[in-house]
Amino acid sequence: MRGPGLLDRCWAIRIEPKGVISWSRIENFQLFTRVEVKGAYTPQPLPSPEQTQTVDGYRFALHGEPRLRAIQAAFLSFTVTGPNGAPARFTPWYGALAHAIFFRKGSLDYFHTHVCAPGAPNCTSLLGGAKVTGTSSTPGKLSVGVLVPVAGTWRLFLQCLVDGHILTAPFILRVR
Ligand SMILES: [Cu+2]
């Protein structure tokens, strides 16, 4: 992940898979190694929840007050508009129209889903056998699948490619 709003102090990991491997076949992966980060740890409080976020002039609006519960699939409805107010046109990026990355406050719990174009064969989101892929068939509209394993405060980073801009919009979700 990268982009403004997410990481002002950005870091990156270069991954060099062993052997011959096709990046298009890597759908979802996690790093299972410790990364040592130098310097003092200064935890930052989460900002207060906002229904809209503006990133690079693009406006992300979350509709309604989602009632999210652990282990129950739900869908969040977003509208994304460009600086001119027109609905955003999502460019498929790493197999999906949008990537939704969830982190739980106070833990390393992590969850990742995709918003898929209609008929996109390699676009999936699975959690324990449950399919929670979101969809978008209309410019500017995203339906984001959520299925988190435990209650708490979750940070959602919604990431998509629009007009050549990689946009990362941060939201806060309360899950009971
Ligand atoms: Cu993804």
Task: Please provide a written account of the structure.
The protein has 176 residues and is mainly beta. The chain has a single domain (52-175), classed as Immunoglobulin-like. 0% of the residues lie in helices and 38% in strands. It contains no helices and twelve strands. It has strands at residues 52-55, 58-62, 74-81, 90-91, 98-104, 110-116, 126-127, 130-131, 134-135, 141-146, 152-162, 165-175. Strands 4, 5, 6, 9, 11 and 12 form a six-stranded mixed sheet that branches. Strands 1-2-3-10 form a four-stranded antiparallel sheet, with no helix packed on it. Strands 7-8 form a two-stranded antiparallel sheet. Mean pLDDT is 84; it is low at 1-8. Residues 94, 96, 99, 112, 114 line the site of copper (II) ion.
Concise overview:
This protein has 176 residues and is mainly β. It contains no helices and twelve strands.
Overall number of structural domains: 1
State the order of secondary-structure elements, H for helix, E for strand: EEEEEEEEEEEE
Number of strands: 12
Which superfamily, in CATH terms, is the homologous superfamily? Immunoglobulins
**Overall geometry:** globular
Using brief descriptors, characterize the structure shown.
single chain; 176 residues; mainly beta; Immunoglobulin-like; six-stranded mixed beta sheet; four-stranded antiparallel beta sheet; 0% helix; binds copper (II) ion
Give the topology, please.
Blueprint: E1 52-55, E2 58-62, E3 74-81, E4 90-91, E5 98-104, E6 110-116, E7 126-127, E8 130-131, E9 134-135, E10 141-146, E11 152-162, E12 165-175
Parallel strand pairs: 6-9
Antiparallel strand pairs: 1-2, 2-3, 3-10, 4-11, 5-6, 5-11, 7-8, 11-12
Bound molecules: copper (II) ion.
Residues 94, 96, 99, 112, 114 line the site of copper (II) ion.
